[in-house]
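Annex B.
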Amino acid sequence: MRNNLVVIGSGTMGRGIAYVGAVGGLHVKIVDIKKEALESAEAEMTHVFKKAVKRGKLSSTQVEAAKRRLSYDVDLVEAVKTADLVIEAVPEIREIKKKVFETIDIHAPESCYFATNTSTMSPTEIASFTKRPEKVIAMHFFNPVHKMPLIEMIRGLETADETVEIVKRISGIMGKETVVVNEFPGFVTSRISTLVGNEAFYMLQEGVGTPEEIDKAIKLGLNFPMGPFELVDLVGLDARLNNLKYLHEKLGEKYRPAPLLEQYVKAGRLGRKVGKGVYDYTEK
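3-hydroxyacyl-CoA dehydrogenase: predicted structure tokens.
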């Protein structure tokens, strides 16, 4: 197997996956329907490369080599024609993922493997959008991708052992540890993370404490690297709400979204990406 990776979606997760792939030695094409989104992704990755050199994580030579392995494309059909592995990182919306997987199934080589970077959705259902369900798996990356060491790999009903081993190898090239779990709504990490984050919104709604105090209590008292509000601002309040709605539908009342979270999303307070979420970043 060659090492040609295509990443679909140049948002926060897509650009992070492309970055670690290129640093690890993979030839990476990052695809998005919007040229401006690709330009934004390239600018952000350049910034991360500079920080890596400054902190001694990478040499200038390594950075230049990684940049040469990166390319950008708005044409999904052309991009996947020589792919060995395609990782989809589009929004957690069934119709969008369905269209992506139906398209790549037609145009990618028969030897190509498919992965979805989902935190909650069913890899079995996503695999059903293709004629190669045995070659489909979920790769749940964590944000920020270049710092977080884990990929949670989730087998669908028909995922082959060979697919698991191939994707494990690629994950290792990216410098990541892996856990392999069987499909169940929310997998392992999202079930815990969404519960903690949702409970934090209920506490804020009830006046238990300020966001700063709740975050500090969780970080120092439970040894979490980030507080729940810091984390939700990073991943996006809209993304968290979508995940909770899905888990509420599949697993019941304990995942019912806090009304305050829904209110923040309706107000457009979606987190760092728009400058304001639970915290205000416009003056920072």
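The first helix runs from residue 12 to 24. The chain has a mean pLDDT of 95. Further annotation is deferred to the next reporting cycle.
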